[in-house]
Design a protein that fits this description.
Blueprint: E1 21-31, E2 38-46, E3 58-66, E4 71-73, E5 75-78, H1 82-86, E6 93-96, E7 98-100, E8 104-106, E9 110-112, E10 117-125, E11 130-137, E12 140-147, E13 152-162, H2 181-190, E14 194-203, E15 214-217, E16 219-221, E17 225-226, E18 232-240, E19 250-252
Antiparallel strand pairs: 1-13, 1-15, 1-19, 2-10, 2-14, 3-4, 3-5, 3-13, 4-7, 5-6, 6-9, 7-8, 10-11, 11-12, 14-18, 16-18, 17-18
């Protein structure tokens, strides 16, 4: 799995150094096969509370791994010093559009609060051959970025720790009983879920077997469904469990 190398938008100082701990917790991913790739994707993250106390550093992201080895990934990150990174206050997240190539390429970094709805949108631009991405807070676009990254072959929703956050618990979630999508969402919100809603993924062509590439870890969802024979896929709710990172999750930069 790719990991992010943080660069501050203002100073371009790399924050993930050689030897730093990198870890991955709960996950929801779907991989494409053959000539199928992701043309467009849209999802909304309901921001949970930040870890308390805030330490370096916990990232929540929906990303697309591409044929060029890039990772198109809008980010929500809890930093030890959020003010120094995006002007945020304690208890807030930093949110921005980004792509991991050899380094992390970033759009504008902005503060966001628990409960905010962060909509991340990626679309392949046929005219430029680039992926255009945007991050919006409660419907207002706050960060954009376009990168030449090849074709997206994997959709991945991840919780990533770096450095001190790798010995802490990611934001909480309690698994609900079986319920309708509406009731499921309300129960998840009541338990401060790390939750994505209204996810839509559009492929370059219909692939009725696309869900065969589904992988989940410490997460559950309302079910992937297609509305047009396999080109457009939707999942109403993706919920990632609370997780205590341990050595089995850890890699090193």
């Amino acid at each position: 799995m790719h990991y992010l190398k943080f660069l501050t938008a203002a100073t371009l100082v790399q924050l993930a150094y050689a030897g730093d701990k990198i870890g991955f917790g709960p996950n929801f991913a779907v991989s494409s096969t053959g000539s199928t790739w992701i043309k467009e994707a849209n999802t909304t993250l309901i921001l949970p509370e930040t870890p308390s106390p805030q330490v370096e550093r916990l990232a929540i992201w929906p990303g697309m791994e591409t044929s060029n080895g890039n990772l198109v990934q809008a980010l929500a990150v809890s930093f030890e010093d959020p003010a120094a990174n995006c002007g945020a206050q304690n208890g807030q997240w930093c949110v921005w559009a980004s792509t991991l190539q050899d380094t992390q390429i970033s759009g504008k970094m902005v503060p966001a609060s628990p409960g905010d709805r962060i909509t991340m949108h990626y679309v392949y631009n046929d005219s430029t051959g680039e992926y255009d991405q945007s991050s919006a807070i409660n419907g207002k676009i706050v960060s954009t970025l376009s990168t030449s990254s090849g074709y997206a072959q994997r959709w991945d929703v991840a919780v990533e720790c770096q450095v001190d956050a790798c010995s802490r618990t990611s934001p909480p979630h309690s698994k609900p009983a079986s319920a309708s999508n509406l009731v499921l969402r309300e129960r998840l919100r009541a338990n401060q879920a790390l939750e994505y809603v209204d996810t839509t993924i559009i492929l370059n062509k219909a692939d009725s077997s696309w869900t065969e590439g589904l992988y989940t870890k410490l997460s559950h969802n309302s079910g992937l469904r297609t509305v047009d024979g396999g080109k457009t896929w939707k999942v109403d709710t993706i919920a990632l469990n609370s997780h205590l990172f341990d050595e089995s999750d850890i890699q090193y930069n």
